[in-house]
């Protein structure tokens, strides 16, 4: 990811729930399926649509922090709200 921030900042997850770094989009497939990366810790996420009638969005951690923080979430298709709640918890601490 370029360090000059030419890629747009992620709207869905603007702050990394693992380290509080800035999260940027890295690739789009559709308006609901895209990839994101934290510029600080290098964590990667990708989104997808759940196989349901509502077609809710999920966010999957595909690469954890360099110090392995977040490894327990690797490959889990979690709701976007799960990651946002992690950010809220970090803010309260």
Describe the protein's topology.
Blueprint: E1 23-28, E2 34-38, E3 44-49, E4 57-63, E5 77-79, H1 80-92
Antiparallel strand pairs: 1-2, 2-3, 3-4, 4-5
In short:
By secondary structure, the protein is an alpha+beta fold.
Could you characterize the architecture of this molecule?
The chain has 93 residues and is an alpha+beta fold. 14% of the residues lie in helices and 29% in strands. The protein is built from one helix and five strands; from the N terminus they run βββββα.
Tags for this model:
93 residues, single chain, five-stranded antiparallel beta sheet, alpha+beta, globular, 14% helix
Low-confidence stretches: none
Number of helices: 1
SSE order in H/E notation?
A: EEEEEH
Percent in helix: 10-25%
Largest sheet: 5 strands, antiparallel
In what range is the share of β-strand residues? 25-35%
Secondary structural class: alpha+beta
